[in-house]
Amino acid sequence: MTVSARRELADFLSSRRRQLAPAAVGLPAGSNRRTPGLRREEVALLAGVSHTWYTWLEQGRDIRPSRQVVDALARTLQLSTAEREYVLRLSGNDPLAAVEAPDAMPGHLQGLMDALGSSPAYAITSSWSIVGWNRAYEQLYPGVADLAPDDRNLLWVVFTDPAVRSLLGDWDADSRRFLAQFRAEVGPRLADPAVVDLVTRLQAASPAFRAGWASHDVDRFTSTERRFEHPAVGSLVLEHHQLTPADAPGLQLVVYTAAQAGSAAKLARLAG
Length: 272
Description:
single chain, 13 helices, Beta-Lactamase, 434 Repressor (Amino-terminal Domain), elongated, 47% helix, alpha+beta, five-stranded antiparallel β-sheet
């Protein structure tokens, strides 16, 4: 476990402990609680570990919990599947293989996106930099081609670009979902220079990002319908998909397909 992973694990467990009401685990609320949520000693008792050891864990000490202990903590803190997976990765019990994004957008993947016709598609790296897109995506979000390379990042544009804020049909929910998915992906790599730079810049630029980052929320990606409000064609309801190419695991392809006949016609109009 790296120092940054230990610190993130400590902060994450602490945030989930404070969010869990005593009644949810069968404990009385009591009148002498000075802080919300469970106490450290209560978590330790319910998980079957010593109070001292759990305190060290929340202090970011150089200890590594076993998978069995992580599972016990996940049950005690009533973590979601995505949160449990996150803790397993942070603790080194389910590490992700290190992959590097290619230096340039592979031609065959660009060709694949271009072949999707009116379905908008783009490619992002593990730090969510946008490194390729098709014409349909440029019609959906015309500003992507004009961004400076350092600003061509999905999380950056979601939280700082007014055009994207207007484009997203439910910016509050979409931005929270994006941030939770981003954190789940980069949590074990918070010390990476690209991640440090992005998070630092976003904390300075966006109060909404600062608040969301402090919540430590994580979630896994699931394909779902998303609504867009495009200035040229109006409302679009699109199905959001994410794919990892087998021969370029450092990239993710994001594809939007029409979820309704009306949206398909509007995408066709945008594509010309």
